User: Fold Fe-S cluster assembly protein HesB from Nonomuraea mesophila.
Amino acid sequence: MRIQLAQRSEADELLGRSPLALLVGMLLDQQVPMEWAFTGPYTISQRLGHDLTAEELTSYDPEEFAALLAQQPAVHRYPKAMAGRIQQLAAHLVEHYDGRPERIWEEAADGKDVFKRLNALPGYGKQKAQIFLALLGKQLGVQPSGWREAAGPYGEEGAQRSVADVVDADSLSRVRAAKQEAKRAAKAR
Assistant:
């Protein structure tokens, strides 16, 4: 299956081939539209002139990296804060996984272990870790035992509630509608 989260072919192609780009896109997916967040890794790689590596992101001067993200069009609504989070994520990946993010799921014992490893990433919390685990299982075929349970409601078959369920423009519309309905229901309580 082809990733279609950025809804731009060149950005989605990068997300499909680079686990680091996919993790960074998920990290950026807050307080901006999903397409903007998942285009971020492509924008960064274009500005660097090559695909992202955790080692390079870690070693980049923090002020220069923040300036790189702030160039127009900005990578995120909060480029300086997100630059710091990306560098923290990259440093964690270098320290714990030799800069190879795919080791998070390739070396995990089961779905619960993948969730634990994702939840430990800087900038990731329970919900983001569950959504990313569901994305791995639903779209990339990474399905260790217990992955659906560890992904919580995001792992449910047929769910339409997160980026894990976006495979084209129609599913993006359904996920957006479900999120708006959930917000309305929460306000009504």
Summary: The chain has eleven helices and no strands.
